[in-house]
């Protein structure tokens, strides 16, 4: 009998939990998070118009890329504002991930598909069979990228801690950084070097950053580790160099910053794993679903 009463009490508690409703939310952080999703949706709209001519000599693909970067700014601000006003919540975390999958998962993948479709249109007319194979390959790489971004965000939600001190590093490449690699190359191609052969490497880079997203390689939190608080004088010199590079060539700076960040921890892992002794903190363990 006591066992039956215990089970009945557990069932009653579960029913009460299921019936709980969300009565209060924090407005400002939620609005910033929704702005992130709106920017991602706008990037998707621009990608769908890529065959048309953009305004002010800027292609729709480049405009879509800049919208992804605006979404990154909103993504940086929402959590910081929520922690500043002490209003972090599970609702905010779930809303953030939903917007992130649009802005840093679907939007970059669609931009990649569109820019490659534009370049492969003539090739498909010459060799339809090869063109069909390439289109399927591009679609599969984009689907793999979106899938890994979704897994990365779901894993982050499960392992995330609300304490600011726990946000000094990320396990796996963050989705905004992965999107930055793809989008920065698209902008560089559209505005700086239209005939660049590097655009054909996008599918392989998409697979690479997808694997890095679900890896166990640690990536530093740039804002928390290198900008907040008192830092050595050398950090100021690096920041000024980066600022000068951005002023000199915005497109080149974006490529170097995002590609360099994505490769940095991978190079460290390879160095400690292959060249020197194995470092457990940099182990590369792809995410595996336990179910």
CATH architecture field: Up-down Bundle
**Based on the structure, what is the oligomeric state of the protein chains?**
single chain
Going by CATH, what is the homologous superfamily?
CDP-alcohol phosphotransferase transmembrane (TM) domain
Which range best describes the helical content: under 10%, 10-25%, 25-40%, 40-55%, 55-70% or over 70%? over 70%
Which stretches are low in confidence, meaning pLDDT under 50 for 5 or more residues running?
Answer: 281-291
By DSSP, the count of extended strands is 2
Q: Which percent range describes the beta-strand content?
A: under 5%
Distance between the termini: 33 Å
Shape: globular
Mean pLDDT score: 79
In CATH, the topology is named Four Helix Bundle (Hemerythrin (Met), subunit A)
How many domains? The number is 1
């Amino acid at each position: 009998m006591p066992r039956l009463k215990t089970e009945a009490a557990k069932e009653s508690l579960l029913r009460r939990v299921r019936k709980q409703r969300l009565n209060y939310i924090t407005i400002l952080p939620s609005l910033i998070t929704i702005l992130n999703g709106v920017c991602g949706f706008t990037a998707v709209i621009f990608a769908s118009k890529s065959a048309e001519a953009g305004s002010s000599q800027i292609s729709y693909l480049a405009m879509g890329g800049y919208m992804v970067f605006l979404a990154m700014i909103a993504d940086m601000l929402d959590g910081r504002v929520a922690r500043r006003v002490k209003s972090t919540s599970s609702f905010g975390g779930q809303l953030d991930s939903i917007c992130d999958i649009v802005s840093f998962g679907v939007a970059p993948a669609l931009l990649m598909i569109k820019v490659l479709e534009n370049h492969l249109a003539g090739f498909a007319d010459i060799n339809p069979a090869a063109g069909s194979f390439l289109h399927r390959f591009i679609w599969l790489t984009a689907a793999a990228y979106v899938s890994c971004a979704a897994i990365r965000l779901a894993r982050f939600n499960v392992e995330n801690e609300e304490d600011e001190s726990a946000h000094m590093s990320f396990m796996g490449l963050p989705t905004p950084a992965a999107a930055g690699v793809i989008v920065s190359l698209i902008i560089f191609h559209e505005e700086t070097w239209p005939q660049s052969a590097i655009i054909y490497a996008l599918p392989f880079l998409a697979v690479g950053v997808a694997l890095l997203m679900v890896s166990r390689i640690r990536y530093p939190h740039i804002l928390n580790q290198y900008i907040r608080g008192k830092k050595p004088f050398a950090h100021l010199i690096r920041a000024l160099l980066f600022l000068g590079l951005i002023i000199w060539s915005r497109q080149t700076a974006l490529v170097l910053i995002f590609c360099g960040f994505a490769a940095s921890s991978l190079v460290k892992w390879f160095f400690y794993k292959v060249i020197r002794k194995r470092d457990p903190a940099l182990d590369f363990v792809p995410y595996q679903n336990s179910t």
